[in-house]
Amino acid sequence: GTEGSSGINAEYGYEIEYGILNTDTYSLLLLTRPDEPAPPLLSVRHSKGDGKITLHLSGYEPITSADTEEEARMTAEFMTTNIGKSLPELSSHVFEEHGVYGYENDGMMLLHQLAMFSHNFHAEKRRKKRNVYTNDVVDVEERGNNIEDIFPAEIVEICEGELLSQHGGCSSNLAVVGGPNECEFRKDEGFIHQFEADEVAKGCYGLCGPWCTCWHQICGDCCWHPGCDQHDHYCDDPKSKECRLGKGVVYGTKGLHKC
Fold this sequence. Notes:
By secondary structure, this protein is α+β, with helices and mostly antiparallel strands. About 30% of the residues lie in helices and about 10% in strands. The chain is built from 10 helices and 6 strands; from the N terminus they run ββββββαααααααααα. A 6-stranded antiparallel sheet has the order 1-2-3-4-5-6, with helices on one face. A hairpin with a 3-residue loop joins strand 2 and strand 3. Helix 3 packs antiparallel against helix 4. The longest helix has 18 residues. It is globular, with a radius of gyration of 18 Å. About 10% of the residues have low confidence.
């Protein structure tokens, strides 16, 4: 298992302790406060046998991924809390500390995907994903850098064009045709690939991350992935249950979706 603590919540007055366990039969994510270790603030368990995901928030009864309406309500309420808001930063902190990608460890995947959910949830008030997202705020830290030196001129022009520049630009580690970032075949995923220019122009559907900015800690690269592509298309309707619950990424017909 993986354990540790993060001081990223100092602005909220407390730290977060995390525990991540991945076995042959189940994976588990626990988030607690050091001064109140029990009950956990959040417990998420993924059963690898039947694919069920059980979510337990402090103060609520446990629910499974089959209870989609209740899960949507509870998860949305959780995302408005301080710990819910901090999940993207916690995800980055845990990856920097341990260097384990989501696709390598289902427990890590639970954390990273909840962090993505938090990012998308709060982007509703800022910058959303794909063609449905607002242009009010751009997260400058997500912008790529020096892409002129590494991407083909056609893709640089697209990344620096009006649409993508309003949505974070392109990460410099984005895997594009003609660029230095390559994609490797994975048996469990089938074909994954580098982005063609027309795919970048549409907003990088299939990339794990908002628009053409990459969260590489989830899938281990910045390539096109089938699960991410499925979820991005669900989010053409951002109010849909499939988008809000992360269908194709957070859950699927067999439970936790890899990438």
